[in-house]
Amino acid sequence: MKTKLKIALMALLVAGMSSCTDDDNFMQTRQEGSFELTGPDAGATVTLTPDLSTNPALTISWKPATYTTPTEINYTVQVSGTSEFETFTSFSSVTTLSRTLTVEELNGAAIAAGLEADVPGTLNVRVMAYIGNEQTDPMYSNVMAFTVTPYVTYPFKDLYLVGSASPTGWDNNADTNHYPLFRDGADANLYRYTGYFAVGEFKLIGESGSWVPQYGFSGGSIVAKLADSDPDPATMQVATAGYYALVVNLNDNTYTFEQFEATGAATYGTIGIIGTSTPQEWTADTDMTQSTIDPHMWFITNQFLTAGGELKFRADNDWAVNWGGATSFSGVGSLGGSNIPIGIAVDGNYDVWFNDLTGLYIYIPTE
pTM, whole model, 2 decimals? Predict the structure, then answer.
């Protein structure tokens, strides 16, 4: 009887051991040593460009880590500016044996590591293997170095209103909340602003707290002051208060400034941002501030945004009225449009602006 029982137990044990080998994801648990990267090739070179931000940039692959009891293994790619990995950027984990980084992801890691834009620099990559959500029993692959040339994360020129006809008057301090023009999502030299103007005058500046560069208006042409020694350009005169649409084209230095009919336009109690790049992700809005001068203009100053995510604008904390768009940093949001790809390479603080008359949006780094 005892012999039969022992045989039965041994059969169960063998069956259990056999079942553990059925799934390649279930390796053996307690580390027996580091595992090996199989890609990229040592000394690989990657040049990144912003117009391909969502394209694949680099695939990291590796051999399986070895543990001694059956469990699913998670793998996280880490990228650092040094081979010691004192600081590093981690990417979302996978259970497969490779992870492809997009141009945007790799550029963010390069900038975070201190690499200079448009200059080739060295990055180091390794993979951390671990068990469970608490990253139990971590082990690391070997380190591989490669060369990457990152791009400028915000290669845009911004324009702001200043003058007695503008919401902030002639105040031009570094901390003045100047209202920006909304840059076109496809043409970085095309700007629009539709909003309320008081009786008075205005011109454009390129940076709060500075009068250079500044831009004035003369007979349909934009006149720029690019140096302190240049003469001040003429202002735009506003004889009648009301809503106007301003379009500035720096490709050919032309502009239009026309009255805009805003009578009967919808107004909202709140407008907020929501999405994975915002503080509360998709669970709740981060409300914007409504302009006291123009009820259709909304903003948040110095707002922390998370790289690699997306966002939308919506009214009254509800999905009945929401705006989405296709372009990062600036563009036009359409009602019920797609999630806006955030486009930023590194987490940071931004001034976020939205116009509910036009759906135009822009977010500008504060540092």
Answer: 0.74
